Amino acid sequence: MGAPVGRVTSFRDALGRFASGITVITSVGVDGAPAGFACQSFSSLSLDPPLVLFCVARTSTSWPKIAATGRFAVNILAADQRDVCRAFAASGGDKFAGVDWTRSPHGTAHLDGALATIDCAIADVHEAGDHLIVIGDVRELHAQREHGPLLYFRGGYAAGAVH
């Protein structure tokens, strides 16, 4: 039984007022094919040990491909990467078409132009409503460039400032 439509709308409206950074979660399968999806529900979790988390819809078709590898990379998008975000937010198709990337030594896909990449091993997955909470054990981090972040706020993109 789902929430009433008015309640869902109110929930989205209220939570849409929280600006969040946009990431793309990626990995590369044993067949060499990359998989990924746009994700705004990403957060640091622990400094000791270094852990991060993200949430993914149970209906995601990309997540099972990534989960099967046991690893993922978080690509933190820059303000000038709106097209990259749109490509990875779409369902189906070749999300990597026209997107430059490299395979990391950890077997994940690093998107060119990302502000930072974080390579992780999947440490745990928890069920939570219509989503999964994925916890990653951080293996390696790379700060790539200084640029404003791509943000999502009230249903649209915004650019953060660099100080």
TrEMBL record:
The keyword Magnesium does not apply. Pfam families: Flavin_Reduct (PF01613). InterPro entries: Flavin_Rdtase-like_dom (IPR002563), NADH-dep_flavin_reductase (IPR050268), Split_barrel_FMN-bd (IPR012349). Transmembrane segments: none annotated. Residues 15-159 form the Flavin reductase like domain. It comes from the Bacteria. GO terms for molecular function: FMN binding; riboflavin reductase (NADPH) activity. Keywords: Oxidoreductase. Gene3D superfamilies: Electron Transport, Fmn-binding Protein, Chain A (2.30.110.10). Belongs to the non-flavoprotein flavin reductase family. This is Flavin reductase family protein.
